Amino acid sequence: MTARRIALLGVAHVHAEGYAAWLSVQADVEVIGFAEDDPEVAQDFEATTGLQWRPLPGLLAARPHGVIVCGETVQHRTHVEGAARAGAHVLCEKPLATTLEDAQALLDACTRAGVTLHTAFPVRYSPAVRQLRAHIQGGDLGDLLAYSGVNHSVSPDHERAWFSDLALAGGGAGMDHIIHLADLLHHLGERVQSIHARLIPVPAWTIPGHEQTDAAGLVTLKLASGAVATVDCSWSRPRAYPRWGHLKLDVTGTAGMRSLDAFAEHLSVTTGQGRRWAGYGADLNAAMLRDFLTVCGGGEAGLLASGQDGLEALRVVLAAYESERAGRVVELSADADAAAR
Questions:
Q1: DSSP assignment of 17-69, as one string?
Q2: What CATH class has 4-119?
Q3: Which residues fall within 8 angstroms of residue 222, CB to CB, at 6 or more apart?
Q4: DSSP states of 15-31 as a string?
Q5: Do the Cβ atoms of 226 and 252 come closer than 8 Å?
Q6: pLDDT digits (tens, 9 = 90+) for 79-131
Q7: pLDDT at 341
Q8: CB atoms within 10 A of CB 41
Q9: What global pTM score does this model have?
Q10: Quick one: which of 59, 95, 286 has its CA closest to 172?
Q11: CATH match for 123-279+332-340 among 3.30.360.10, 3.90.1590.10, 3.40.190.10, 1.10.260.40
């Protein structure tokens, strides 16, 4: 098999280094380099990964089979549109964009170019998620009544300051964490009809200069199935917490309940440097990247989320922010629900 040429466009995201490390040891992959506007970030990434920092036009002129977009969210449109013009398939970090207009532009650019756009939602690959989805689709829980989701983490701003910059990220913990559960609900067959959200800004002393960035929130969703869902999202974990965070979902139906913890498989390791949880479960990022490489080779996408999936998840998140600003329930349009189907 001919090696698939892969490039990274932007490396400011905390997942970029892990993606690069995994791709670099695959026998059928040639990572041809990365583009990055920030020289300091680029030099650090080059030193850490050994990959070549290249100007964006030259990198795309090398005709990669696929690109992985890992820059600040506000840069995604520029990178995805450039990749599409170069004929490369795209895996884009979530959220796709900071606005629905930009997210739709990404989809349109890839459609015009005849390439695929995918959104990085690795939680779809969790064995616990697959099992829960099978229970729901098989009717094991009866009529679904309620979902209760939790997505907490350490604030990522101490690794990448841009996560707390509204101009670059489009939001704080809500943008970072609601979106995973929004996609998970969609993946389980649900459609959101209305949203009520409270998103709380960080204390002024926590991240000086970003006092309007939300660090915690509670979102209530009314679903087309008649069920309701709540999402508890926050950057509430202290930096000494033994892992970055977690994602959990409880589902209640008329015939039973099921719970999932996407990162439950871990060992507690205590050393002189403190305590940490070492995961031993499935590598969800690796599973997602394998699917993307299959797409780059002309195969089927498997569980890989589409660009449309990414847009619909973003629609839910932006409606949550609108609800917070307006202090009321926000209805999602019937046209949006029809598009999602």
A1: HHHHHHHHT-TTEEEEEEE-S-HHHHHHHHHHH-PPB--HHHHHHT--SEEEE
A2: alpha beta
A3: 192, 193, 194, 195, 228
A4: THHHHHHHHHT-TTEEE
A5: no
A6: 999 999 999 999 999 999 999 999 999 999 999 999 999 999 999 999 999 99
A7: 45
A8: 19
A9: 0.92
A10: 95
A11: 3.30.360.10
